[in-house]
Amino acid sequence: MAKATGYRLSTKLNFMALLTAKTRKPDEAAEPMNGREPIKGVVYGNGIPSVSLNIGPSDFLHLFREVKYSSLFDLVIDDAEPVKAIIQEVQVHPVTMNPIHIDFRQIRMDQPITVEVPLVFVGESDAVKMGGTLIKNLDEVEIECLPAKLPKELVVDLSVLKTYEDRIVVSSLQVPEGVALHHDAEELIAAVEEPLSEEEQKKLEEQDIGDVTAVKSEADEKKEGEEAAATDEAGNDKKE
């Protein structure tokens, strides 16, 4: 298979969003923030003791829509000087899916960080237009770089997949200078699967039909067993 090259990747770096938070003390009743119960959180990393936080729900959701897990932002705690941070983990309620706890990681700008950066797929593949099926093996890639070099996303142009032999792999990625990929070079990102021929489709349908007719349900087997037992019992009664 041929490696597809020439597709573009975003070099857009993180913009600096801002989130304010308040220190949360153990067993202290949380005061409403913007009229709503705050989300609990914690910030750690960069050699500092972890600090428990209260965060306004609307403020956090607005931030999360913009930065997700791969963008830096300024975190302001109790009106102190802002620190650079990223969202490390978001725990959500199993029913409402609303965030209930957030982990923030404080970042040092002079030390490399490792994060997952999303892949954004754009463009149309000629192979898909011919009837093929697009296969995407990765939706994000792990990278390492200094925080100032951190891209918000990597954009992959699918228009380079012109034939069923073309494929996009990790080694094809042209990442910004100073950014290292933590993946196997030949790991597949995207390709187009050729549609089945009429003969292959017919064989598959015949195989499916054969599989279905060959399968007996548990209820059918139980019923047949009961009928056989009843027949044997009736035969024994006649002999007696």
Summarize the structure.
The chain folds into three domains: 2-12 and 113-193, Beta Complex (RNA Polymerase Alpha Subunit, Chain A, domain 2), CATH 2.170.120.20; 17-106, Ribosomal Protein L25, Chain P (Beta Barrel), CATH 2.40.240; 203-239. The protein is 22% helix and 35% strand.
Descriptive terms for the model:
240 residues; alpha/beta; RNA Polymerase Alpha Subunit, Chain A, domain 2; Ribosomal Protein L25, Chain P; 3 domains; 6-stranded mixed beta barrel; 4-stranded mixed sheet; 14 strands; 22% helix; 35% strand; flat
CATH superfamily caption of the largest domain: Ribosomal protein L25, C-terminal domain
Annotation, overall tally of beta strands = 14
Largest sheet: 6 strands, mixed, barrel
- Helical amount: 10-25%
Tally of helical runs: 4
> How many structurally independent domains?
3
CATH class of the largest domain: Mainly Beta
* Rounded mean pLDDT score: 82
Order of helices and strands: EEEEHEEEEHEEEEEEHH
What topology, given as strand order, has the largest sheet? 2-4-3-7-6-5
CATH architecture of the largest domain: Beta Complex
Rg to the nearest angstrom?
Answer: 29 Å
